[in-house]
Every structure is written in C-alpha cells, then in structure tokens.
Amino acid sequence: METRFDLFATQTGAKLAKRFAGLHGVLHESPLSKTVVELVSMRASQLNGCGFCLDMHAKDAVAAGEDPLRLHLVAGWRETTVFTEAERAALKLTEEGTLLTLDGVSDETWAAVREHYDEEETAALVCLVGLINAANRLGVITRQKGGAYQVGAMAQFD
Q1: pTM over 0.85
Q2: CB burial of residue 57 (10 Å; 0-12, 13-18, 19+)
C-alpha cells in the first residue's frame, strides 16, 4: 500500500503537527519518565498498526539510550522480566485505553497506575495514551509508512 496523503505538506496539517509536537514537548517536560513515554507510544502504535509512529518512537528511544532488547519485547511485555512494575502498569493502561471496551480501563489497572504514579505523572500518562492514539489514527488513515524517520525530525514542528 502506498501512502495516501502527505498530511504534513498541507498548511492545516503542518499547523496541527506543530500543535501535536508542542503537546509531546509538554509530556517530555512532565515528571513522567522518557522511558515510559516511549514504551507507551510504542505499545499503542503496535496495537494500532502505525508503522510511522513505531519507527519514530523506536528510533527516538534508542537515541535517548533505551536498551533495544526492551523495545523488541514491548509487544510481549507480560511474558518478560525486563519491565518494572510501574512500566507494566503503564503498558496495561495503554492497552486498555487503546482497545476500549464498554468497561473502559479496569479498576485493577487504574489501581496499579495510581500505586506507581503521582498526580502529575498520572495526568501525563492519561494524556499520552490519548495523544498517541490520535497520532496513530492520523498515520493509519493516511497510510504513513515507517522506516524513513530520522531522529529529531519532528523538531521542525516545535
């Protein structure tokens, strides 16, 4: 499948991308760890099939010093020993917040999140799950392909 549309090449798309990048910047300024930001972004992107976002977040995570082995294991996080309990809570919230059911996020998952994250971190985590899902949907709708992302490329929209 070919890319349908270059959203960033339009005036409206570029303005929206700038706002998205600004929101992403707010998340990176929050007390939520950059590791959790990238793990959550990768897991949602896996679930949503967004190759562009997977490419971007994997490369940005490695550039920030994340262990590539952990990135390879994100899809099977339940069956590994490489993620902390806090990261596991964030990944579970990501899955339940991405694959919404009528019940939404379970009380068990919410309790785990609140056990590991304070008010500010929880606010950032909830917003991150919503934002990465929105970004994934833009990428999937327009069939943005992964593979060509260069680390720091989104800085043009800051």
Answers
A1: yes
A2: buried
